[in-house]
Design a protein that fits this description.
Number of strands: 0
Number of helices: 2
Largest sheet: none
Radius of gyration: 35 Å
Shape: elongated
Strand content: under 5%
Oligomer: single chain
Length: 92
């Protein structure tokens, strides 16, 4: 049996397929490394937030959940525009 000859077209297609597979493998590795870094950064941020919260609980400081709570006036448009607020029934 004679060895088969590989044409240039088959060699080119095989080479391109191998290059594409290598590029996909490298990009997958890069993306997975970024996700690990983001996860570790998120974990560090969560730990910092827990430390700040625990310090404020230990020292007895008030935690401000709404920083503009006392600075916004209470405006209820229903009270100002209700025409029936002082209505009296003439048939009673």
């Amino acid at each position: 049996m004679e060895p088969q000859k590989i044409s240039q077209k088959q060699l080119l297609v095989t080479g391109i397929a191998i290059i594409v597979i290598i590029i996909l493998a490298i990009s997958y590795w890069y993306v997975s490394q970024e996700q690990k870094e983001e996860a570790s950064q998120t974990a560090e941020n969560a730990n910092q937030a827990l430390e700040i919260f625990s310090e404020s609980v230990v020292t007895g400081e008030d935690i401000i959940s709404n920083p503009v709570q006392d600075k916004i006036p209470e405006l209820n448009p229903v009270e100002k525009t209700n025409p029936y607020k002082e209505y009296t029934n003439p048939f009673e």
